[in-house]
Amino acid sequence: MxxxxxxxxxxxSTAALNGGFYLQHEASQRLxxxxxxxxxxxxxxxxxxxxxxxGFVTGLAxxxxxxxxxxxxxxxxxxATSAGGMGLLALLVRIGGVRLSAHERLAVAAxxxxxxxxxLSLPAGTARTAVVGWGLPLIWVLASVxxxxxxxxxxxxxxRPGAGLAIASGLLYAAGDIATKAAVxxxxxxxxxxxxxxxxxGLAFVSLQLAFQxxxxxxxxxxxxxxxxxxPIVAGIVVFHEQMPGGLLGVxxxxxxxxxxxxxxxxxxxxxxxxxxxxxxxxxxGRPGVNAASR
Length: 295
Hints:
The chain is mainly alpha-helical and 295 residues long. It has one domain (2-278). The chain is 71% helix and 0% strand. It contains 11 helices and no strands. Helix 1 (2-28) packs parallel to helix 5 (85-95) and helix 8 (163-184) runs antiparallel to helix 9 (190-212). The longest helix is centred in the first third of the chain and has 27 residues, at 2-28. It is globular. The protein starts with a helix and ends in a 22-residue tail after the last helix.
């Protein structure tokens, strides 16, 4: 019963998170340039925009539900369930007036099919976990922060606009999720992971908001969500020693994991290679010139 409740909350959580990302992306496209040189002016632009604030609050509600879900179900299972939210993001983009390609429709189908397979594997019950020390979670989080820094700055020059920041955001959100799992699991020292949680999520928030103005929704929120779903699934098995069920149910759950991650990967790849979700010009968005925030 607790496992089913945890997965239900994970579904509601991912709906809120991806819906919030979509609203924030749409609002950011119409704002003057956000810049780290003028952080307070940038925050003022965001928090005085009703559409962006609605997306932000919706995302916060989704994150709160995610924390509760982590307390009820294993990390890898919660994240695989959450990966289906990529399908919702694609639907929101389509409703916003962008036609989905055949590959993007395939991605949505893969995500939904993966969720169904995970549901069929639930009779196996909650995965057993071993006792976990603080070392592996801490190393994972610190390594994620380091790689995120590389992606956001030096690697960004060879990536599609917004992709480097989106990668950094996904890595940091995933690191925050792993710190959250460690904290709610009572891994000592709990205060250390409790401090890392807002630090990682704060840096991820900044990276993602900057990415939103540099790329389309599926290339920014999509790529960030891909990493945020994929990495904790791996961490659940590697760091928290979560185990797959055996037999046919184990095969179904494995295929479910693969389906949800494949769907996320396809959406992110199409987001990077396809046409922009929105018109290229700032004027088409009713957005001021890119230097407006620094004036």
